[in-house]
């Protein structure tokens, strides 16, 4: 195995984003994507992902000369994710901004400072998905975490506290959305009630939301096999694939001690959930709206679990591939991707370990004290990239700046219908405007300065 000095994202992330922005502008001028009036919208939210997260996934799975599905999306913009009252985003407030098109305080889950529902950029006290449901547009939310995770939940629920999982889940089931896929069975069931995954529910109001969903016409499925067998003409779907998240978001060492996998083995992947959703919704006669979140990219990062983070990144990218393949046959579809923050400041480290033997464990920390992860956690063997164009593979490690969500170097991307409307630098409020234009054929005035 020939080892050469590899590319380190941490040293060149800013330069890379600037270069990609220039490329995106050139592509926009010479290769305009299909720009139709209205059509389907797929918003994929790989939570917590920066350019460095995507770069690490590229190295591991395809090599430095390979390309992710995400790389092949046609247009991009550097994403500005600041909140109304702070520079760094929270998952709940970032999702509210995507769902309404307006800046909110960091603690918002759909309500303003006085406790009233946010008025969206459209002028209505509804999120974009609630407005779509009111107009009869088929809709779906998909999450690898509990369904009350704000990346999807904030499109359908409004509460005072993001920890109000029972109330958020109830509002989702009552919202009228056509497809609900994710984890969190404990928040569907009353206390002492045993489920397919949960030993006991956690609802204190006595309501069984699974029974309620069945009365509302939902077909309920609990695992990959049941989901993939759904008939195309299924009207409404509730998929519950884990007691809590479909992943186990703890440090590598803790998972090893407990003999737990990264992801629940019976749960469908993000790509499988999207594929089934597209199969069901594309059978309708109207354009549809899908919001999907791969939450593992954020949660594994916040536990500094590099192995889990990179697995989640691959799953997110596979879902992007499913959406892009659908667009090949259905050009009246817009695909958008955006994170709202950079989870724990992941960076790829290559220079310090390029001459180390591959069978030698990494030091647990860098010289500056930053945690350093190998393929099974700190003090383990390095990751090794997929071969480059010359067949060479390189060792690398993952370093972390902390355990929180940062502003970071976040990139939003667009592909398919109206993708050329993506700006080289895009405020988080603009995600809403892009989706609104494609769903409702109306260009709203920008709320960003």
UniProtKB/TrEMBL annotation:
Keywords: Magnesium, Metal-binding, Phosphoprotein, Signal, Zinc
Residues annotated for Mg(2+) binding in this entry: 47, 293
Note on cofactor: Binds 1 Mg(2+) ion. Binds 2 Zn(2+) ions.
Domain of life of the native organism: Bacteria
One Pfam family of this chain: Alk_phosphatase
Cofactor: Mg(2+); Zn(2+)
Family of the protein in this entry: Belongs to the alkaline phosphatase family.
Name this protein carries in UniProt: Alkaline phosphatase
């Amino acid at each position: 195995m020939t080892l050469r000095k590899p590319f380190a994202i941490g040293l060149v992330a800013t330069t890379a984003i600037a270069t990609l922005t220039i490329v995106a502008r050139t592509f926009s001028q010479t290769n305009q994507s299909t720009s139709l009036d209205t059509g389907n919208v797929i918003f994929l939210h790989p939570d917590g992902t920066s350019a460095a997260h995507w770069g690490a996934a590229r190295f591991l799975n395809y090599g430095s000369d390979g390309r992710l599905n995400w790389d092949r999306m046609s247009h991009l913009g550097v994403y500005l994710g600041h909140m109304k009252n702070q520079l760094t985003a929270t998952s709940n407030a970032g999702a509210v901004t995507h769902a309404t098109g307006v800046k909110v305080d960091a603690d918002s889950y759909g309500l303003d400072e006085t406790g009233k529902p946010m008025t969206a950029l459209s002028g209505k006290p509804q999120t974009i998905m609630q407005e779509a449901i009111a107009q009869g547009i088929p809709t779906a939310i998909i999450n690898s975490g509990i369904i009350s995770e704000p990346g999807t939940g904030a499109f359908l629920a409004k509460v005072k506290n993001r920890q109000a999982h029972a109330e958020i889940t109830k509002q989702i089931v009552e919202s009228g959305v056509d497809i609900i896929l994710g984890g969190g069975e404990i928040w569907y069931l009353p206390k002492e009630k045993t489920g397919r995954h949960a030993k006991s529910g956690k609802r204190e109001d006595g309501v069984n939301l699974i029974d309620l969903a069945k009365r509302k016409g939902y077909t309920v499925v609990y695992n990959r096999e049941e989901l993939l067998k759904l008939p195309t003409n299924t009207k409404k779907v509730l998929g519950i694939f884990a007691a809590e998240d479909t992943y186990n978001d703890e440090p590598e060492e803790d998972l090893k001690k407990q003999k737990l996998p990264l992801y629940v083995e019976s749960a469908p992947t993000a790509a499988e959930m999207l594929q089934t959703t597209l199969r069901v919704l594309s059978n309708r006669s109207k354009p549809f709206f899908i919001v999907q979140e791969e939450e593992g990219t954020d949660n594994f990062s916040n536990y500094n679990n590099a192995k889990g983070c990179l697995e989640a990144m691959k799953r997110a990218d596979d879902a992007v591939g499913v959406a892009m393949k659908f667009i090949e046959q259905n050009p009246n579809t817009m695909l958008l991707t955006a994170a709202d923050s950079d989870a724990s400041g992941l960076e790829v480290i290559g220079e310090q370990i390029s001459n180390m033997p591959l069978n030698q464990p990494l030091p647990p920390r860098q010289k500056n004290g930053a945690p350093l992860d190998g393929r099974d956690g700190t003090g383990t063997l390095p990751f090794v990239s997929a071969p480059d164009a010359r067949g060479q593979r390189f060792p690398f490690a993952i370093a972390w700046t902390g355990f929180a969500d940062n502003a970071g170097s976040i990139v939003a991307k667009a592909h398919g219908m109206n993708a050329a409307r993506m700006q080289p630098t895009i405020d988080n409020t603009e995600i809403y405007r892009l989706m609104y234009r494609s769903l409702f054929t109306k260009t709203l005035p920008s709320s960003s300065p």
